[in-house]
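Re: Re: C-alpha cell formats

Sure, here are both.
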Amino acid sequence: MLGRTAILAVAFCSLLPSARAAEPTLLHVNTFPNARALPFYVAVEQGFFARHGLNVDLQLTKGSSPQRAALASGAVDIVHSAVDNALAMIAAGNDVVIVGGGDSGTNEFYVQDNVKSFADIRGHAIVVDATNTAYALQAKKILAQHGLQAGKDYTLNPVGNGGFRLRALFTDKNNAGAILNLPFSLEAAAKGLHSLGRTADLLGPYQAGGDFVRRDWAREHADTLVAYLASYIEALRWSLDPKNRAAAVAILVDKLKMPQDIAQKSLVLMAEPGFGFAPDAKFDMAGFKNVLALRAEVEGANAPKLPADPQRYIDLSYYDRAMKLVNKE
C-alpha cells in the first residue's frame, strides 16, 4: 500500500503531461514596421496571443522580397503583408494561400515639393519596395493613367519598406515620389512633401494587408492558425476601441518610436472606413478582384499566367472558425 508521500508524488507526476500540454505554441510571424503593426504589439502586451496559447516571435521585415523568401523557406510560419505578394509567390511556384484580410493599405502617392502634378515625374525615379508587386503595381497603373510608362518616362528604385522609401525621398530629390502608408505619409507631409491622392481614390477598392501561409503548414497546424487569427481579431478590436485610444497611442510611440502627434493622427486614419483597417480584418473580395485585375493589366505579357478565379488563392475557412471562437468568447 502506498504511503502518503508516495501518493502525493504520484498525484504530482500525473499533472505533468497537462502542464507540458499547456506550454504556448511558438509561432514565427513576419510583418512590416509601420503603424498597422499596432495589433501585433497589442496582442502581445494585452495578452491576446497568450490567452490563445501562443508565443509569437514577431519579426519586422526590411522589404517584401526577404519576407517572401522567409515564408518559402519555412523560416516564417505566417506573413502579414500586401496579399499581392502571395500572388507573386504563387506565380513563382510556391503553394501559399491567403487566409485573412486586414486593411486597405492607408496608401497615398507622395511627391517632392517641386512636383506639382504626375507629369512632373517624367525623367525621374519612383521609389518602391519591390518592382513587381503590390504598391509598385499601383504606382505603375496610376502613372500610366497620366501617360507615363515605367522604363521609358521614369525608373523604379526598389529600396524596401516604407521607412527606406521615406529616407530615399529625403536624401535624393531625383526620387520624385513614392506610395507611402502610415506613419511615413504623415512624416513626409511634415517635411514638406505633398500627396497627389490616396490610391483608394485613384484606383478604387484594394485588398492590401492580409495573412498568407504555406498551404501544407495551414493543414498541419489548423488549430494554431485559427488561434492566431482569433488573437489578431481581438487585438484589432481593442486597438480601434475609442476607450483604448490613449493606450494604443502610447504603444505606437513606444514600439515604433513615433512622435506623439504622428501616432495620434495615424490611429485616427487607421480607423477610417475604406482607408484603414477593415472591421475584424474582414477580407475584401471586391478589393481582391481589383488586385488580380491590376496585376494582369500592369504586368501584361510579362505577367505569369494565373487563374482569374479569386477562390484559387484564398481559404477563409480558418478565418470563419476564428470569428466563431471570438464571438463565442
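Second one below.
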Amino acid sequence: MVGGGVVGLATAASLVHDGVEVVCFERSTVMGERSAGSSRIFRLAHVDADLVRLADRARAGFARWGAGIVDPVGCVVSGGDAAERARAMAAAGAAHELRDDADELGLPVAGPVAGPVLVDPAGGVVDVDAVRALLVGTAGHTIVRAEVDGITATTAHPGGEGTAEVRVGGVPRRFDAVVLAAGAGTAALAADVGVDLPSALQHHARFTFALPDRPRPAWIDAPPTGLRTYQHRSGPGRWSVGGSVDAAAVAWEVGPAEATSASRDAVLRFARERLTVVPEVVETLYCTHAPDTGDGITFARSGAVLAVWGENLMKFVPVLGQALAAAAVDGSTPSVRELAEV
C-alpha cells in the first residue's frame, strides 16, 4: 500500500483480515490530509445510479463495522443537480423525496432555500474518529512512516502476474502488488507507471461554528447565485461549513495560507448572512481538492500497480477497502458498475 489515508488503511485492514502480508507506506499522519477531521457527510444522493447503489452497499458495510459509525440524520441536497440526483436514486430504487422547499427540515438557515430540494433519508454523518480507531486497531502495525520516491511496475502476464518496485529514500523494495491510494500524491506516482490521472490541485478548507445542538440533516446546497456549500453537524454544538469559493482564490500557486484566508472570508460572510450559527469560526480544517475529479471513482492498473483516485471517498470506504484488497491479490481492476452490482 502507498498511502495511509482512509482508503489505504481500509485496504490494508482487509488484507490483514484475509491473512495477506502487507506494508502501508505513509509519509505523514495516518488518516491525515484528505481523511482528516472528525466527520464526513454520508449520502446515497449521487447523479449516477451505480454510485447510489455503491453507497448503499457501503452503508451496510459501515453498519457491520459498528453501530453508530454513521449518524442516520439524513442528507438534504438543494438547488443545482438535486433533481438529477433524485432521478438516479429512483433508478437505483433508493428512498428519497423531491420537494419544492426546505421547510421543517431543521436546517440552520435564515430565510428560504432555493429548490428543488432532495431529501435522502439514508444519508447522515460518518464518525471519522470511530473509523480511524477501528482501522488503526486492525492495520496500524502495517504502517511504515516514509515517503515513496517512485514506483516501477513490470508488465503483468496473462495470469495477472508481475511485480512492482517501490523506492523509499532511494532504496528499492519489491512487492508482488502495489495499491496506490496516496491522495494528492497519487497522480504523480501513477505517472511513473504510465497511468494518467487528473493532476490539478486546489486548496480547500472547511470551518466550524457553534450552533445549539439538535439532530439536523447534513446539507449540500447549490443555489443559482451565491456560495455553494456543504454543511453538517461535526460534534456536539458544532456545525461545519465548506464552500466552493472562486477558483482563482484557491489555486495551487496561491498557497495554503492565502487560500484558507480567502475561503474563511467567504464562508464567514455566508454564515453571517444566511445561517443561524454563532458567526465566529471555532475550528478550521484544511485539505487539498482535485477539481477535475468529479463525484466518481477512477481505478487504473499498470502491471502489478493498481491506482485509485477520486474525491469524497470516505463514504464508500467499507466497499473500497475490500475491493482493492481483492484486486491486489487476483490482479483484477475494479469498476464502479461491478462493485455496485455485487
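Residues 75-121+202-289 form a domain with the D-Amino Acid Oxidase; Chain A, domain 2 fold (CATH 3.30.9.10). The first helix runs from residue 6 to 17.
- S.
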